[in-house]
Amino acid sequence: MILDNMSPKLAIDGGIPAVSAPSGPIFPGSMLIDEEEEAAVLQVLRSRQLYRYHGPDEEPSQADQLENRFATHMNVNHTLAVNSGTAALICGLQGVGIGPGDEVIVPAFTWMATATAVMLLGGIPVVAEVDESLTLDPRDVEDKITPYTKAIIVVHMRGVPGHMKELRALATKHNLAFVEDCAQAIGGSYSERRLGSIGDVGCFSLQLSKIITSGEGGMLISNDETIWKRAVMFHDVPGAERVNLAPEETIWGINFRMSELSAAVALVQLTRLDGLLDQLRMQKSMLKSGLKDIANRKGITFRDLPDKDGDTATTLTWFVETPERAQRVTEALQAENINARVLYHPDISDQHVYAHWSGLLNKQSWTAEGGPWRWAKREIEYTPDMCPRSLDLLGRSITINVNPFMENTEMEETVDGIERVLEVLT
Ligand SMILES: *Cc1c(COP(=O)(O)O)cnc(C)c1O
């Protein structure tokens, strides 16, 4: 036990910060971009083939190669490259047949795109609670299923796999489509299967803040040929020409195609994925073991991990007793140059929490006639406090982004800084 008068003064009280310099924001994949990505892009530019289907020199398509390698990496039969994670979700939802008036269960904690993709197709998002894993709570999902529910979207938020076994069972029992939003958890797994390959369809983003990136981009995966064919047709105006179906089976599409330049970058980034995950996991386990003593002593609970081995380890999150305490601890950690934040504050806008989705809460739309709710088969009400448990948990959770490239001294300083703060403030 350290005596109070011997422990260093917290930086927030005027002491010297535990970590010598603040580390900047962390973008794992883009921080690795080097000559390999440069060469890949240059090669495409020099070939003048910037479009996946043809060009002056008829080079093999980068998007084709990306789809093939992604299929191997994820161990699935079918993949599709698109231009964003949102597009992947729209194509995936369309692939499983979501249309006007269909209810789709989404978690209270996710990037708003999970819900906007539903709305774009005329579907009705129904928001369900997250539990201590900060992913969908299967018990609340079951309570929210109605005769009009058509799908569940699990979101592996901040790198952590959701409750796949329980949700899969629910989807099967109620005959619902099961969609995985893997935008924040590419390469993660559950029961040794890659995330995205367990549901009916898996959707990924390659936008800059994700684990690996092509700046903008997305991928869709499925083992179901029909879902995949529908997605191919929807993502591309003439997509029906790619899937070899009878004319009466084809549907029209819009344009979500991936550019060859993005595909070239994504191909290189994919080769970096598993190494990056190894580094993230190593750093996170160092952090966690460094904090074991203080966590035990102070009775700190970490976020629940439905599959510990499948965690992508991009984040470390724990709960404190009250939102006020969470704010104080976070401010103190920031003063120590540790990049911590609280996942929800009612006054700080953040589109990762449903209580800030004003477009949904107010049922806003592009037209005066109103959005998808005009097709709803029952009265749908949204209120900012409709998922109180999620708001409580998120308001009390302190999270830090794991830096895959952290030096040992900075790791030691970080552990020391967190210990100091928790010692005094919890
Ligand atoms: C980033 C993200 C998306 C959307 O991906 P974009 O490529 O930005 O369209 C969807 N869901 C989640 C959980 C995300 O984090």
Describe the overall structure.
The protein is of the alpha/beta class and about 425 residues long. It is built from 15 helices and 13 strands. It has helices at about 30, 35-45, 60-75, 85-95, 115-120, 140-145, 165-175, 225-235, 240-245, 260-290, 290-300, 325-335, 360, 390-395, 410-425, and strands spanning about 80, 105, 125-130, 150-155, 175-180, 190, 195, 200-205, 220, 300, 315-320, 340, 395-400. The strands form 3 sheets. Strands 1-9-8-5-4-2-3 form a 7-stranded mixed beta sheet, with helices on both faces. A hairpin with a 2-residue loop joins strand 6 and strand 7. Helix 4 (about 85-95) crosses helix 8 (about 225-235). The chain is globular and about 80 Å long. Pyridoxal-5'-phosphate (PLP) binds near residues 84, 155, 181, 184 and 218.
